[in-house]
Amino acid sequence: MARPRTPSLVVIAYDATKDRGLHELRLTVNGVRKWGDILSRGDTIVFLGVLDKVLHPLGYQAKPCLDSIETSIRVVKETVRKKVDGYVNMLLRSAQQCEDQRVSIKVKVIAGCPVKQVILQELMACNAAWVVLDRHLKRYLEFYLMHIHCKIAVIEDSLAVEVVRAHQIEDTDTVEHKRFYSMSKRVPVFNCQRRSAYIASLESPQICLKPTQGKQEPQRIKGRNQRKKLMGKQVQEPRERIVEKEGSQKGRKIHLRVARCFSCIASEHEGARKIIEVPGEE
């Protein structure tokens, strides 16, 4: 009897210094899904971005090495966080589509250099089954073919995914482990109900309630079954209903108003209704 397949990692490596658009990310995910050999049920897609430059507060580009004195740790963390949040927002639709195959998407951004060494170290650490190299990383293809043990695919300039090596290799060199700053976040999946509620909350107008001049707003009673004591006797909160009836009596309108009726324990006419005639304006 065959053993059930263990879920694996499919790493999509890219240069985080380059800008990526929503259309490019969706085509990449769709291209990986079309290849039946790359992605299987229960796998995890990891968007692995390497940031080898950060903008220094003084205005120049600096290497994001933690051991370098010219790099601000706060700037590195803030830049990485913005990159992660940006990619997560652009991959929300793709994560919803991959949910049908029980495939999850995760974003991880590492600040370090050089790019090819950082990617190699991360692939060795996570033991990925596949790596899909971005079109900007194809210049390192020969390096990865020699040092990476997993299967390899590349993204062409047309954003199509092409398989370069469909088998794994055993003999690879050891990689020196270096310390880099990284941040990862899983792309959430919203169901239809939560998604509809979220869209409705954005489309619904904001209502500002203001009291009308000349009219007294009724006070809201706190508590559903709150009771008050009046003259030492318990009194239930009144109910008020207004009934308007127009009639003609010598050219005048007559309005009938149902006034508040208090139901008192000691009252002999509990629950009675009192009708008051209020003459209208001429």
From TrEMBL:
Q: Which InterPro entries match?
A: DHQS
* Listed GO MF terms: 3-dehydroquinate synthase activity; oxidoreductase activity
The source's superkingdom equals Eukaryota
Biological-process GO terms, alphabetical: aromatic amino acid family biosynthetic process
Full protein name? Uncharacterized protein
Protein source organism: Prunus armeniaca
